[in-house]
Amino acid sequence: MTINRTVRPSGTTGSAGHAEAIRRDGFAVLAGQHLRAQLPDPEFAALREAWADLPVDEQVAEGVTYRRRRYGRVRVVLGADGPVVTPLANTAFRQDTIPLWRGRTRVFAPVAEEFLRSPALRFLLALDAGLARDLSGITDWEVGLHLVRIIAQPTSAGLPTPEGRHSDGHHFVGMHLIRRDNCTGGLSVIHPRQGPPVESTLTEPLDSLFVADREVTHEVTPVGAENGTGVRDMLLVDLNRWRSDDGAPTDRPGGR
Ligand SMILES: [Fe+2]
């Protein structure tokens, strides 16, 4: 894979600049430092705590233990006073757009409702749904939340995207780095429809990648550990338009 362009997280352009970049390139990389500055320390600490209690994702393959995860769902409606976040029931999961998961119904452990109602999550949902609104004009979203931890050992890497290069089958996807300790690798690679792939490495807390999932594909290189155990925690936010025609959310595939 030849990568001709490396993108550094940007926090100087504001949401309008990021939306413009996503419209043009299909993605944007947002600086975590800028986002962290808007979030009180106790709220971010509480958010991070949720990753301390993730069960092994048994859906990857038998015997694989390097990935841990939980899954949650909310409806996000953007209004004049910010987002209204409503927790939804956990559901089984299909992602037939990706060959590795085709034909498989996956069930993940749910996240606590306390997490779904937390201020830090609301902050990130305001960011993601706000970008999605700026790009589409849509204010009502069905959102899937994936809390994922990749664990690497010196003798065994962890794969953030065992499915390889893919798109997730959503309208937009926000990917937020929650923690990266003692890791090597883990480069995010975005493949535009045209031109060479672009690489960016999320290194600081809340460094974020936002993609127009229909416009680009993405993958993440294996995560290694320099010594001891490496830990890479991500919050993945799937955004799909809420369908109100039958009063029920869309039954979308999602996640990774
Ligand atoms: Fe993905």
Write up this protein.
This protein is of the alpha+beta class. The chain has a single domain (5-241), classed as Jelly Rolls, CATH 2.60.120.620. It is built from five helices and 13 strands. The chain has helices at 14-25, 32-36, 41-49, 113-116, 119-136; strands spanning 5-6, 27-30, 67-79, 82-88, 140-152, 172-181, 183-185, 188-191, 198-200, 208-212, 217-220, 223-225, 230-241. The strands form three sheets. The protein has a seven-stranded antiparallel beta sheet. Strands 1-9-8-11 form a four-stranded mixed beta sheet, with no helix packed on it. Helix 1 (14-25) packs across helix 5 (119-136). Residues 247-256 have low confidence and may be disordered. The structure holds fe (ii) ion. It holds the Pfam family 2OG-Fe_Oxy_2. This is 2OG-Fe dioxygenase. InterPro entries: 2OG-Fe_dioxygenase.
